[in-house]
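Handout for the seminar on molecular recognition.
Each group receives one record of this type.
Step one: identify the two inputs.
Step two: read the structure output and locate the region that could contact S-adenosylmethionine.
Step three: write two sentences on what you found, then compare them with the reference statements printed after the record.
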Amino acid sequence: MAASRDAETWKDVQTYYGQVLKKSGDLQTSACVTTARLVPRHIQEALRNVHEEVTLRYYGCGLVIPECLENCWILDLGSGSGRDCYALSQLVGETGHVTGIDMTESQVEVAKKYIEYHMEKYGFQTPNVTFLHGYIEKLEEIGIKDESYDIVISNCVINLVPDKQAVLQEVYRVLKHGGELYFSDVYASLELPEEIRTHKILWGECLGGALYWKDLAVLAQKIGFCPPRLVTANLITVQNKELERVIGDCRFVSATFRLFKLPKTGPAERCQVIYNGGITGHEKELIFDANFTFKEGEIIEVDKETAAILKNSRFAQDFLIRPIGETLPTCSGCSALESKERYRESEVETQAEGEAGSMQEA
Ligand SMILES: C[S@@+](CC[C@H](N)C(=O)[O-])C[C@H]1O[C@@H](n2cnc3c(N)ncnc32)[C@H](O)[C@@H]1O
């Protein structure tokens, strides 16, 4: 039963992204439109270098380019025409690698067509990007191995998948310990009623399959991820009277979350941390999520979850981390700084409510 539901949804989505939509301007809502603010300059440059046809067929809802990328292996779930993959392939460098996976053949074809163009533009001898045709719920079928990626990204795709738990479970399997899923997607202010979930255009436009935002934390915990960390959220607008009628009181946001897979270690504790300013493009400050911005050289007190993430992920090399009570050693760039004694609760729920503004339960 579930298998035939999946197959039917895949067919509808493939038709929508392969035949109905030809360019981002064909969309009927702002769900698959990116309204990222304050894009760092090195990312703007990387995006500018992406081929025009690839960019024209971009349908993402957020900026899925995290920090600290050199040499990383990245997997893009539902990579479409490959815009994010090509931007990331510059940022990971020739010794890193980006794999894009999508089930819509025509989108994969557009992505593959420009591999040589981009490698030549970036001056890479060996291509560091691969595009595969396949389903993101079944990564094993296309040969994606356990613990083989540092980062998994996804831009406006998981809402299109009926079995979201299967996707997140696959992500957990293929991520290395300390790795993260950094993804933008669409969330609903309530459990969606049948009329919205079965509406073909709303599904294709990334609204009909949106997860009730509170369910993300439940799913993440069930699978073994740390609680989701909200990065940004934007309210989605619908400029179509008929779609507005079907949607009624339900509201949607596009939101970017980070989900970390950490090794099972002993109990974590609150810590003081100092960012050393070593991350490309984020030398002065690192906006980690909606709760934490780390300024170079500033002492910040963090909760145990944030401490565990910083200690056990690729960010470890960029921070001095000490349990509260121990003195942090001074470092170049830190000595003249005083403690700001800042502690902010990392409450995804509170943040999501605040950021999304109007995401209240009906
Ligand atoms: C809204 S578009 C976003 C594409 C791309 N991430 C971008 O930002 O341009 C959604 C994409 O997800 C793909 N997709 C949806 N469900 C999928 C699945 N189960 N497996 C693989 N790809 C899927 C579609 O084919 C489509 O290309």
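Reference statements: The pocket of S-adenosylmethionine is lined by residues 10, 13, 17, 32, 58-60, 78-80, 83-84, 101-104, 107, 135-137, 155-157, 160-161, 206 (CB under 6 Å). DSSP finds 13 helices and 14 strands in the chain.
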